[in-house]
Amino acid sequence: MLEIIYQDEWLVAVNKPAGWLVHRSWLDRHEKVFVMQTVRDQIGQHVFTVHRLDRPTSGVLLMGLSSEVGRLLSQQFEQHQLQKRYHAVVRGWLEGEATLDYPLTEELDKIADKFSNPEKAPQSAVTHWRAVATAELPVPVSRYETSRYTLVELLPETGRKHQLRRHMTHLRHPIIGDSAHGDLRQNRSAAANFGMRRLMLHASELSLTHPVTGEPLLLRAGLDSIWQEMMVQFGWQDVLPEVPRVEFTAASLQDSSLT
Question: Which pTM does this prediction carry?
Answer without folding.
Answer: 0.90
